[in-house]
Amino acid sequence: NSVDAATQKLAFLKPFSVAVAWKTSKQISKKYFCLYKVNNGELVLNQDFVEHWLNFCLFTADEVAESNYNYFVEDMKKDGIEITEEFENLIREWSSDVNIVGWNSAKFDSNFLLQHLGMIDPKNIFIMGNQGNNKLVTFKTESGNTLIFCDGCNYASKCSLDKATQSFGGNTERVKGVYP
User: Fold this and answer.
1) Phi, psi of 150 (to 5 degrees)
2) What residues form DSSP beta bridges with 148?
3) How confident is the model at residue 180 (pLDDT cuts 50, 70, 90)?
């Protein structure tokens, strides 16, 4: 069979892997999730990898939010700023937003994300954009944090992933699982 201008091909995109990197006041860490894993030397299907990743993000969001809160409180105390209870509550509220930045994720990635978030709690999902091009997806967790999934391409026009990792992350080349 040959492919020409009149040929129509159907393609079905299927999630294969996802990597996450996160920063706390103590360290930068990363973890990789994949459709396949090696178990006792054999390659086996890991169909729940997206759910594992999302659950990991939910758990890690608590750690990141607490680290963000501590960073601001400690920094303000060093500068001699008095922190009233009202001010502390504002810092806690602001620190509860945890950004998760993808690259070129507004289309395919956000659609499979929405399917899996919907299985966790569909009433806590908010979308900015339209079907097939979600600019921003927020998800309110049970612990009160808000995960904000956004596409980094919306903030860095005409910038490749390689350039973004060099400009923002200080890397000389792209490193799988680390953004930027």
Assistant:
1) -135, 155
2) 99, 138
3) very low
Q: 37 near 44, Cβ under 8 Å? A: yes
> Which pair of tokens denotes residue 43?
């390659």
The pTM score is 0.72
Peptide bond into 15 cis (omega under 30): no
Strands 36-39 and 133-140: unpaired
| Angle at the Cα of 156 from the Cα atoms of 177 and 126, rounded to 5 degrees | 75
Burial 64-75 (b: 16+ CB within 10 A, else e): bbbbbbeebbee
For 3, the token pair is 């492919």
Residues 6+ apart with CB under 8 A from 114: 125, 127, 134, 137
Residue 172 DSSP one-character state:
S
Tokens at 84, concatenated: 């009233």
Amino acid at 137: V
Distances (CA, A) of 171 to 109, 160, 174: 24, 14, 7
How far from chain centre, in Å, is Cα 15? Answer: 15
* Count of C-beta atoms within a 10 Å radius of residue 99: 12
